[in-house]
């Protein structure tokens, strides 16, 4: 029987570290000011979110989301022992695409140097923090059906350019960082249902759509974008808006339910799973999920403390980080549960 195997993994974060202390002094060009710009502080951020620092791209206007995706992709393809020309499908999850259209997957395809060589299929998916599980479900279906044989699944985000560096935007601004993670998936012949991608489930509840959103424009209006982006009285639409408490409650509920369902539907227990890799939105959300779902704490992997929330990238980025630290080993089984804007949520079990 054909099942899906993780063939390679890679990740990338930019070099610039922005601490909680520094973020309070940054203007929207990411330049440190002499006096504090945003009323926030390290203690508040750590207490509420667990975040100490995050990574930002250079502020020279020369880095795109596709560049972060490209670096992670090159590493994942090399890790799989493949060449870029072996890839026959790209699925890219991002909420911070290079531009409104075309999607960013085609830009990555071009930057990988395979656009004219393979003309491979390119999908952008828009499931925000749940994109990696959604993308893995798509990739798994494609591979089991024989549609594609070497799928590059990427999560990449350049958040730092679209945050509100002011007290108005502080609830969201302190949470997010830049980064990318990628996986290469392909077919394997096995009758062992516990190998490769064992399980994926994806869910959504559109009632929560406006509880965490970044509009930028409203297409129903004429003109569809009608504000001065430099006027703080008018430009709120340019920045993410969040009902933090509703997001927190729904995230805990969605991640607990999907974690429990993943175990129940596969007949697995924590004895079968080496690592729990939750989406990295907030350390407090993850601690609550671990407590309510009774997950062995020693099996939990986080990176939120030093990478912040990198949305679609968090799952592969966290697995790859802990692999580089020597914790995650080849063949380990991971249960990942995610929650994000939409609301969307889901879970996956797979061996790495
Ligand atoms: N620094 C300092 N104070 C801040 C702040 C910041 N960065 N952000 C908000 N505050 C203030 C609020 O303005 C409020 O002030 P007030 O009491 O004077 O009105 C106070 O802190 C408490 O705000 P509240 O929203 O009640 O805090 P909270 O305990 O709900 O924590 C979050 C806020 C954002 C940390 C929390 O709601 C959360 O983690 N939500 C989930 C967010 C998330 O994970 N999003 C991504 C999902 S994929």
Describe it for me?
There is one protein chain. Strand 12 (333-340) and strand 13 (344-351) form a beta hairpin. The protein has helices spanning 20-23, 42-49, 65-79, 104-111, 115-118, 131-145, 170-173, 244-266, 283-292, 304-307, 314-324, and strands at residues 2-12, 16-19, 53-56, 89-93, 121-125, 151-157, 179-189, 197-204, 212-213, 241-242, 275-276, 333-340, 344-351. The model has no long low-confidence stretch (mean pLDDT 97). The chain is globular. It is built from eleven helices and 13 strands. The chain has 352 residues and is an alpha/beta fold. It folds into two domains: 2-189, Peroxisomal Thiolase, Chain A, domain 1; 197-351, Peroxisomal Thiolase, Chain A, domain 1 (3-Layer(aba) Sandwich), CATH 3.40.47.10. It has a five-stranded mixed sheet, sandwiched between helices. The longest helix has 23 residues, at 244-266. Helices cover 30% and strands 22% of the residues. Bound molecules: coenzyme A. Coenzyme A binds next to helix 2, helix 7, helix 8 and strand 12.
Please outline what is shown here:
Helix content is 30%, strand content 22%. The protein is α/β, with parallel strands linked by helices.
């Amino acid at each position: 029987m054909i099942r899906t195997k993780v063939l390679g993994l890679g990740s990338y974060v930019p070099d610039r570290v922005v601490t909680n202390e520094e973020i309070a002094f940054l203007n929207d060009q990411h330049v440190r000011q002499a006096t504090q710009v945003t009323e926030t502080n390290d203690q508040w951020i750590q207490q509420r979110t667990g975040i100490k620092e995050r990574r930002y791209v250079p502020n020279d206007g020369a880095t795109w989301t596709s560049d972060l995706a490209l670096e992670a992709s090159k590493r994942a393809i090399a890790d799989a022992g493949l060449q870029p020309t072996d890839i026959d499908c790209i699925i890219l999850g991002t909420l911070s695409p290079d531009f409104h259209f075309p999607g960013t997957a085609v830009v990555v395809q071009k930057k990988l140097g395979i656009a004219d060589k393979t003309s491979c299929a390119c999908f952008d998916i828009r499931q925000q923090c749940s994109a990696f599980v959604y993308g893995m479900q798509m990739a798994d279906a494609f591979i089991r059906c024989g549609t594609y044989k070497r799928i590059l699944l990427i999560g990449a985000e350049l958040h730092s350019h679209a945050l509100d560096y002011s007290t108005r935007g502080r609830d969201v601004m302190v949470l997010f960082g830049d980064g990318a993670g990628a996986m290469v998936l392909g077919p394997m012949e096995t009758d062992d249902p516990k190998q490769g991608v064992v399980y994926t489930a994806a869910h959504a509840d559109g009632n929560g759509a406006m509880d965490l959103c970044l509009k930028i424009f409203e297409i129903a209006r004429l003109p569809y974008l009608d504000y001065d982006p430099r006027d703080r009285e008018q430009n709120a639409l340019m920045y993410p808006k969040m009902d933090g408490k509703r997001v927190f409650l729904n995230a805990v509920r969605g991640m607990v339910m999907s974690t429990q369902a993943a175990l129940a539907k596969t007949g697995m227990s924590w004895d079968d799973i080496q690592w729990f890799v939750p989406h990295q939105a907030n350390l407090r959300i993850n601690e609550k999920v671990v407590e309510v779902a009774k997950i062995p704490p020693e099996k939990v992997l986080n990176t939120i403390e030093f990478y912040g929330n990198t949305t679609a990238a968090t799952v592969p980025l966290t697995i790859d980080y802990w692999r580089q630290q020597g914790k995650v080993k080849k063949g380990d089984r991971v249960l990942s549960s995610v929650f994000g804007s939409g609301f969307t949520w889901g879970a996956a079990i797979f061996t790495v």
